[in-house]
């Protein structure tokens, strides 16, 4: 349990502290955000704080974000040969066109199978390689403890 706040600052919300330059919002793992100046009244502070909270919009984690994390990982950059990296990048283009804006938890086996059926009519080998790429991404995400379902 953390220590108690100074009684003068008890009115402030959690993760907000007063510094010489004003009031700052600092939550562990997130960047520090300046909320109000040092001479702001409590009412002015609360207006600025509400405005700050209204501006926070949670971006949903998409399959494209998962692929981007994989491409930046050491498993991709150090352990896969350059030609295979180029191939994966090519597969990535087609797969992201279909699944890029979806949440990884919403990509199910039937959806991947429908993609393979449509893609496999014209290019069956490409469909298999792209499915393998999707599988590699999900396997890496699970191993990296990124919350994904298959």
Automatic annotation (TrEMBL):
UniProt domain Integrase SAM-like N-terminal: residue ranges: 62-115
Domain of life: Bacteria
InterPro entries: DNA_brk_join_enz (IPR011010), Integrase_recombinase_N (IPR010998), Integrase_SAM-like_N (IPR004107)
Entry keywords, A to Z: DNA-binding
Name the record gives this protein: Integrase SAM-like N-terminal domain-containing protein
Organism listed in the record: Microbulbifer epialgicus
